[in-house]
Amino acid sequence: DAGVTQSPTHLIKTRGQQVTLRCSPISGHKSVSWYQQVLGQGPQFIFQYYEKEERGRGNFPDRFSARQFPNYSSELNVNALLLGDSALYLCASSCVQGDDCGATNEKLFFGSGTQLSVL
Amino acid sequence: KQEVTQIPAALSVPEGENLVLNCSFTDSAIYNLQWFRQDPGKGLTSLLLIQSSQREQTSGRLNASLDKSSGRSTLYIAASQPGDSATYLCAVSFSGGSNYKLTFGKGTLLTVNP
């Protein structure tokens, strides 16, 4: 079974540009979360989506937005990029208890991330 | 403010040594606590998840404990191997928010020397 897949793996943008990152969850997982990890820090929560609805939002500016599609894949969009947006962006999927994917706890499965560099 | 702190920031040990990584959190009202492993430039691999009602979890050479009252967790690694070298992250899901919103520590960089 495929794990969580993210694309692209690496991305270079310049200040002021916009970027879209993509995530495909593990088959059967309906919950997708996004995290930002700046070098030397732990990941910070950006969004959680479940059944195509936003269920949680971290302390990030409105330049950050996301959506979830009917097939449960997700996109993270960042507008007006700043140098400080350079980071590893991680996507995680979860099987929510009660869904038909055999969850017994709230374990998160992470993808390998998208490394975004803003110049 | 709900925060997670990990000590030490870095640890270097000889192969075969048993070691303990520490994690503390500021609010005892939690859903669960998870330990992750991260290799350089890679995503996170879940090692152990401890529910709020549990005291410890074990997987192979790894044992994680949870003491909610003191706001502490430890990850014990037995008979360390060079392949255990990685950054270990502690993450807490605090009550009052989504079960899937994790607050992470900055991690402990572990180096196991052959």
Structural features:
heterodimer; A: 119 residues; mainly beta; four-stranded antiparallel sheet; 11 strands; elongated; B: 114 residues; six-stranded mixed sheet
Sequence-ordered SSE layout with sheet pairings:
The complex is a heterodimer of chains A (119) and B (114).
Chain A: E1 5-7, E2 10-13, E3 19-24, E4 31-37, E5 44-50, E6 53-57, E7 64-68, E8 74-78, E9 87-94, E10 109-110, E11 114-118
Parallel strand pairs in A: 2-11
Antiparallel strand pairs in A: 1-3, 3-8, 4-5, 4-9, 5-6, 7-8, 9-10, 9-11
Chain B: E1 4-7, E2 10-14, E3 19-25, E4 30-38, E5 44-51, E6 56-59, E7 62-67, E8 72-77, E9 86-94, E10 103-104, E11 108-113
Structure description:
The complex is a heterodimer of chains A (119) and B (114). Chain A has strands at residues 5-7, 10-13, 19-24, 31-37, 44-50, 53-57, 64-68, 74-78, 87-94, 109-110, 114-118. Chain A has 119 residues and is mainly beta. The radius of gyration of chain A is 14 Å and the shape is elongated. The termini of chain A are far apart. The mean pLDDT of chain A is 93. By secondary structure, chain B is mainly beta. Chain B contains no helices and 11 strands. Chain B has strands spanning 4-7, 10-14, 19-25, 30-38, 44-51, 56-59, 62-67, 72-77, 86-94, 103-104, 108-113. In chain B, the strands form 2 sheets. In chain B, strands 2, 4, 5, 9, 10 and 11 form a 6-stranded mixed sheet that branches. In chain B, strands 1-3-8-7-6 form a 5-stranded antiparallel sheet, with no helix packed on it. Chain B is globular. Chain B starts with a strand and ends with a strand. The model of chain B has no long low-confidence stretch (mean pLDDT 94). Chains A and B meet through β4, β5, β9 and β10 of A and β4, β5, β9 and β10 of B.
